[in-house]
Fold Integrase catalytic domain-containing protein.
Amino acid sequence: AQLEYTVIKPILEKKLNSADRPSWQEIAPESPATKRYWALWVFLHLKDGVRYCRWESYNGSSCRWQLILPKSRIPEVLRETHDSASGRHFGVMKTLSKTRERFYWDRLRADVEKWCRECHACEPRKGPKTRTKGRLQPYNVGAPFERMGLDILGPSPVTTEGNRYVLVLMDYFTKWPEAIPIPDQEASTVAEELVRSWISYYGVLMILHSD
């Protein structure tokens, strides 16, 4: 079955005939996937007539044999590692880890990601692909200073008076703006300037809008 896997077939045939890795000139006409298997030449081994890829941890403390899977068997394996009762429809990373414990094939990660992404059973748990946004609604005001908007601009270079921010106020009805320099964004500073520069002149507002 492995020899039927056309991507790795040239590599397997050369492995059966020689222990020496073929030169790049010999492998250059092959597909990109075949070249990736060529790069793994030293990790490919024959055990009981079956080809495996030997995986080692970074520090060499552990090793496992991954069966090189023909393309036709990939769906069967992914159904077992993701869809089955033991797979439990885990996410990409857990499914990937479970699959790599026993199997290897070219572009394994991409196939696992695609399988998990297109899994119908997982779809309800993923939530909507796009967030639903509420419709914008106009806010009607009927008198000056009924509703005020407040925001802070900055930080900017420090002025000679020690200010780095600008407290911006605007009346929703008249569109009258005020820009007040302040040294910081502390709540006490903003409240003090709001009272001193606006309320003391125009009176108490009904609604203050700020993010």
User: Anything to note?
Assistant: The chain has two domains: 8-124, 147-209. DSSP finds eight helices and eight strands in the chain. The CA atoms of residues 128 and 206 lie 38 Å apart.
